[in-house]
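Allow me, if you will, to draw on your knowledge of protein folds for a short while. A protein sequence and the structure tokens that stand for its backbone fold form the material at issue. I would ask you to consider whether the tokens describe a fold that such a sequence might reasonably adopt. Thank you for your consideration; the sequence and its tokens are set out here:
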Amino acid sequence: MDTIWLGGGAWLAVLRIGLGLWWLESWRHKDKKTWFQGAGITWAADVAAKHRWAAVRSGFDTVVRPRPRAMAYVVAYAELALGLGLILGLLTPVALIGGLLLNAAYFTLMIHDWAEQGQNAMMALISVVALFAMSWQTWSLDSALGWFG
């Protein structure tokens, strides 16, 4: 594969690392104090309560609403883990699939917000490309440790 400056595998690593930085920024920009006190989940509960799909409303009420503090930690630290995993190339396929699932959850919850949809669509597309192109083969701990072929 002919490319400018870097080889194809290195460009895929750049894409993977960029996605990791994006997840890390999602974690970094949260006001942790208010987020862990429930602000993020309160906001999401308001969005879910007005959602056009009854399944989203009932799913949120069943899974998230009974445990807002725990879910706030799950969301925030999932974003941190995804960012670090992708940047370091550690358990990269797991991080890419986890990111796809988190983007799908965000995409579903925020179905009416086009700005949010664009971000989640781009992150999901990058995840799919990085996953199927096996982006962990270059510049990753997975590669250095001989994991995932």
